[in-house]
Inverse folding.
C-alpha cells in the first residue's frame, strides 16, 4: 500500500457517493478476489449487493469502508479517494456495520453507541470514559428511537440478536454518516425480524437523505428495500439494474453453477 | 469436525491414526524411562535407602513445635505482603508491556523488542532475581518484593500480549472503522473483551507468588524462607513443621479467596 493520498473533490459537483473503477484485489499474489469491479452509486440511493458466498461481497464492502488495501483501480467514497489508511473526516462520513456487527460484548449498549463519536472526540475524556453530556443524551435518544430505551445499561452479551442489530445501527447513526455500508448484518435473523430491522434502517436512511449500500441474501427483502441491485459473482459484477426487475429465477440464472449461497424465503 | 473429510477418516484411516497415537505414547514412555534410568531411578538399593531417610525425616517433623508460632506468623505476614506488593507492581508494569507486545495493535519492531525483553526477564528464575535484588537494594523484604515484581512481569506481560491478541479482530476492525485511536482501542475493545482473563491470570500469579515468596528468604530477600533455612540447618524439624503448616494454611486461604473473587466478580461474562 502506498502512502496516504486523499483528495477531497469539489463538493459542488453532483458527485456519486461511491465510484469504483476497475478494482482488483488479492489477499495472496495471483489469487484475485475482486477482478475489475466497477460501480457508481448516486447519493441518496439504496443499493444492495447480492451474490453467492465467496463472490467477494464482504471484501468489496471492506474496501469501501477504507479497511482493506487493494492492488489496482480507483475507489472514491464520499469524495475521498482511497489509498492507505483514510483520514478521520472519512471515518465520520462513512458508517460501516460488519456482518458480525463488531460490538464490544463487555460494554453496555450505551457505551457501544457512544463509540460512534470517537472520530470527533479525540481528546483524553472519552478514554477516561467521559463523553460530552449532549453526546450521551443523543446516544440515549437513538436507543430510545430504536426501542432500546430500557436496555442502555445492559451489556451487549446479555442482549438478543435483534437488539444487538439495533445497537449496531444506533452506533452507526452516532457517527453522523452520509453513507452507510452494511455487510449482511441481518443474516443471523429469521425473515420477519430481518424485514423489521431493514424497514427501520430504510426509514432512517430515506428520512435523512443518506446513501445505503448493503450486502443481502434474501431477494424478497431486496425487492422491497432497494432502488438498485448489483450481483457479484466470482469477483465480477454480472448484473446491475433496478431491484424490481430482478426475479428469483433471474438471480438464480445469474449465479448458476456457483455454490448456491443465496437463499430465498421458504425456498 | 463433522465435515465430509472427517467421515472419510473413518475406517482404515482412523485405525491407522489410533496405532500412531499408541506408538507416540509408547515412545514418550520409553524416553521417560530412559531419562529416569540415567538418574538412578531403577537402582533399588538407592531408592530403598532414600525412602528410609524420608521416613526418619517425616517422623522428626512431628510433633510440630508451637513455641515458634509468633515469630513464624509475623514473618509469614511479611511474606504475604511481599507477594501482594510484588504481584501488583508487576501487574502495573505488565499490562502496558502486554499492550505494546500485541501484534494486532503495534508494528512488528515494537512487538519484537517488547517480547525479547520479556523473554530475557523470564529466563532468570525468581530466586536468582532475589539474589540480584539483594545486591541492588540490600537484604530484606524490599529485595524480595522487587524480585517478585520483575518475575511477574516476565510471565504476565507475555500472557497479556497473547490474551489481547486473541480478542476478536473483527471487533477491533469495526471500532477502528469508527475512527478510534489506539488508546481508544485499548480502553474500549481490548480491556473490556479481555478483562476477565487478565484479572484471572493476575489472581493465579498472586497465588503462585505467595508460594514462591516463601523461599526467597533463603537468599536473604525477606520473608519466612529465612526461618525455613535456619530450622533446616539446625535440624529443628519440629519448628520447620510449624512453618510448613502455617504456609499451607496461607496457601489454602489464598486459594479459597481467589476462588471467591472469581465466582463473584469474574464469571459473569
Amino acid at each position: 500500500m502506498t502512502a496516504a493520498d486523499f483528495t477531497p473533490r469539489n463538493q459542488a459537483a453532483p458527485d456519486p457517493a461511491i465510484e469504483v473503477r476497475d478494482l482488483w484485489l488479492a489477499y495472496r499474489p495471483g489469487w484475485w478476489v475482486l477482478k475489475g469491479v466497477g460501480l457508481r452509486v448516486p447519493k441518496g440511493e439504496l443499493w444492495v449487493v447480492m451474490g453467492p458466498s465467496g463472490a467477494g461481497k464482504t471484501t468489496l464492502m471492506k474496501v469501501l469502508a477504507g479497511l482493506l488495501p487493494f492492488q489496482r483501480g480507483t475507489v472514491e467514497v464520499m469524495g475521498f479517494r482511497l489509498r492507505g489508511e483514510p483520514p478521520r473526516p472519512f471515518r465520520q462520513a462513512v458508517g460501516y456495520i460488519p456482518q458480525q456487527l463488531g460490538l464490544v460484548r463487555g460494554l453496555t449498549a450505551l457505551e457501544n453507541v457512544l463509540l460512534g463519536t470517537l472520530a470527533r472526540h479525540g481528546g483524553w475524556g472519552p478514554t477516561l470514559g467521559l463523553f460530552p453530556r449532549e453526546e450521551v443524551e443523543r446516544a440515549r435518544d437513538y436507543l430510545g428511537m430504536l426501542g432500546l430505551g430500557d436496555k442502555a445499561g445492559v451489556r451487549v452479551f446479555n442482549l438478543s440478536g435483534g437488539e444487538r442489530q439495533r445497537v449496531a445501527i444506533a452506533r452507526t447513526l452516532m457517527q453522523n454518516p452520509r453513507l452507510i455500508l452494511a455487510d449482511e448484518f441481518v443474516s443471523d435473523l429469521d425473515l420477519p425480524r430481518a424485514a423489521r430491522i431493514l424497514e427501520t434502517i430504510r426509514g432512517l436512511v430515506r428520512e435523512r437523505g443518506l446513501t445505503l449500500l448493503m450486502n443481502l441474501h434474501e431477494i424478497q427483502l431486496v425487492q422491497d428495500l432497494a432502488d438498485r441491485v448489483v450481483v457479484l459473482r466470482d469477483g465480477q459484477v454480472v448484473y446491475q439494474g433496478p431491484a424490481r426487475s430482478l426475479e428469483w429465477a433471474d438471480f438464480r440464472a445469474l449465479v448458476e453453477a456457483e455454490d448456491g449461497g443465496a437463499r430465498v424465503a421458504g425456498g | 469436525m463433522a465435515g465430509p473429510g472427517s467421515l472419510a477418516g473413518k475406517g482404515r484411516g482412523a485405525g491407522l491414526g489410533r496405532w500412531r497415537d499408541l506408538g507416540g505414547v509408547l515412545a514418550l514412555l520409553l524416553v521417560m524411562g530412559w531419562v529416569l534410568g540415567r538418574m538412578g531411578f531403577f537402582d533399588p538399593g538407592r531408592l530403598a535407602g532414600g525412602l528410609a531417610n524420608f521416613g526418619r525425616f517425616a517422623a522428626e517433623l512431628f510433633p510440630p513445635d508451637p513455641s515458634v508460632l509468633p515469630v513464624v506468623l509475623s514473618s509469614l505476614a511479611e511474606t504475604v505482603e511481599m507477594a501482594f506488593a510484588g504481584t501488583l507492581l508487576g501487574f502495573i508494569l505488565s499490562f502496558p508491556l502486554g499492550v505494546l507486545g500485541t501484534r494486532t495493535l503495534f508494528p512488528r519492531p515494537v512487538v519484537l523488542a517488547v517480547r525479547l525483553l520479556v523473554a530475557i526477564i523470564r529466563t532468570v528464575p525468581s530466586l536468582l532475581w532475589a539474589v540480584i535484588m539483594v545486591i541492588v537494594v540490600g537484604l530484606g523484604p524490599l529485595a524480595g518484593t522487587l524480585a517478585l515484581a520483575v518475575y511477574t512481569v516476565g510471565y504476565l506481560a507475555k500472557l497479556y500480549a497473547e490474551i489481547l491478541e486473541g480478542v476478536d479482530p473483527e471487533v477491533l476492525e469495526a471500532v477502528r472503522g469508527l475512527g478510534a485511536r489506539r488508546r481508544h482501542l485499548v480502553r474500549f475493545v481490548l480491556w473490556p473483551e479481555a478483562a476477565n482473563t487478565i484479572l484471572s491470570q493476575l489472581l493465579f500469579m498472586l497465588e503462585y507468588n505467595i508460594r514462591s515468596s516463601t523461599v526467597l528468604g533463603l537468599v536473604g530477600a525477606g520473608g519466612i524462607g529465612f526461618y525455613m533455612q535456619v530450622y533446616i540447618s539446625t535440624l529443628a524439624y519440629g519448628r520447620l513443621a510449624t512453618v510448613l503448616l502455617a504456609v499451607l494454611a496461607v496457601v489454602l486461604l489464598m486459594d479459597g479467596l481467589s476462588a471467591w473473587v472469581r465466582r463473584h466478580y469474574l464469571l459473569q461474562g
In short: Strands of chain A lie at 18-28, 31-41, 46-50, 72-77, 80-81, 94-97, 179-183, 211-215, 228-233, 236-242. Chain A has one domain: 18-255. The interface with chain B takes residues 65-67, 88, 91-92, 96, 98-107, 111, 115-116, 118-120, 122, 126-127, 129, 157, 171, 175 of chain A (CB under 8 Å). Residues 18-255 of chain A form a domain with the Rossmann fold fold (CATH 3.40.50.300).
